[in-house]
Amino acid sequence: MIPGLALVVGLVVGLIMHPTAPIWLQPYLPIAVVAALDAVFGAVRAVLDDVFDDKVFVVSFVSNVLIAALIVFLGDKLGVGAQLSTAVVVVLGIRIFSNAAAIRRKVFRA
Amino acid sequence: MPDDGPVHWRRMIRPRLSRAEAVVSLLTLVLGFALAVSVRSNDSKAPLVGARQEDLVRILDDLDGRAARLRQDVANLSRVRDNLNRGSGSSSAALTEAKTRAEQLGILAGTIGATGTGIVLTINDPRHEVGADVLVDTIEELRDAGAEAMDISGVRVVASTYVLDASGGLIVDGIHLTAPYQVSVIGDAPTLTTALRIPGGIVDSVSGRPGASATVDQRPAIMITSLHGQPKLAGASPSPSPSTH
User: Fold this and answer.
1) What tens digit of pLDDT does each residue of B149-183 get?
2) pLDDT digits (tens, 9 = 90+) for A40-63
3) d(CA B76, nearest CA chain A) in Å
4) Least CB-CB distance to B32: which of A10, A19, A43?
5) What single DSSP character describes residue B58?
């Protein structure tokens, strides 16, 4: 409940404040956001499965973000940035979908 | 599988004040913030500002390729336009030339009227002493002097014009004419006048016939409206090999 509210609060603050991210950060922000979303979806599934552990969530959140950013950065340096970032986004998307499906099955029993 | 859907639903909704909850809330706060910032930066007027170098290079390559193709198109279309301009120009020049030629030939053939400077030769012949031979000489003399269009008392003189003696007058191209004969000529007036007035020329021969006289008037604008009908050639036809002189 409170994390949900916190998410909304963060969104509102971000939209109102209208900050601009630093240039060096801007290419990695979208990927990091998607990776964090994957961690959040995984956490919600864990709560519904009654196996939620805040430590696990924090670690998975931070590590997802860092690893995704690292992979994209490495890809840029190697010259396969576009392909690797596509791969990262695809994999995260798949995970988000499977978590969402599990959540749906738990909540709606359908 | 145990059916705990509703229980978990309620558990999720109920707020709990614990360290776990606080940490999770902090992270989701950051996530919301980052989400808003990402959407903003993607939405902004300068979407290329945060793009990766690879993406920028690819975009630049695409734009370069498109620019090269468009330059090619411009060159092609310019060439086509120039061709059309030139083509229409040359065809209109040919058209003008053909028109001019048609006019000149028409004047010579007597199929169109003509106007210009020239002279009027009036031959008075009350006693009908002037014969066809005089008129034929007159026509030849005037042609030698550069006459371009000629008319004898309303009959257009062309290459096939003939003059015959007839009772009381002359027959020109089948038309019976009586004195006085008015010969209108378009050409260089001084030259024509001189040619008619040379010693032993037309004026002299006419004056030599009893009772006849000839006068020459220079005019700045003579209009010849008489026409010679389209000739019907019975024997002649165009020769295949062209020769111009």
Assistant:
1) 999 999 999 988 999 999 889 999 989 999 899 99
2) 999 989 988 888 888 889 999 999
3) 36
4) A10
5) H
3-state secondary structure of B116: strand
Between CA B65 and CA B75 the distance in angstroms is: 16
| H-state helical runs in B44-188 | 53-109, 132-144
Closest by alpha carbon to A69, among A23, A21, A33? Answer: A33
| Unique residue bearing structure tokens 């034929």 | B136
The residue written with tokens 């000149």 in the block is B104
Q: Provide the 8-state DSSP code for B234.
A: S
Q: What is the pLDDT confidence band of residue B10, given thresholds at 50, 70 and 90? A: low
Contact of B208 with B215, CB cutoff 8 Å = no
pTM score over 0.90: no
Q: Which residues contact B157 (CB under 8 A, 6 or more apart)?
A: B110, B139, B150, B151, B172, B173
Q: Mind telling me how many Å the CA of B80 is from chain A's nearest CA?
A: 42
Measured between CB atoms, which of B13, B25, B37 is closest to A6? B25
Residue type, A9: V
Q: B24 vs A11, A68, A106, B16, CA distance in Å?
A: 15, 20, 21, 12
Neighbours of B114 (CB within 10 A): 23
Which residue carries 């001084």 as its tokens? B190
Q: Number of A to B CB contacts under 8 A, please give it.
A: 136
CB-based contact, A19 to chain B, within 8 Å: yes
- Please judge whether A57 and B27 are an interchain contact, meaning their C-beta atoms are less than 8 angstroms apart: yes
Cross-sheet strand order for the sheet of B175-177: B163-166, B169-172, B175-177
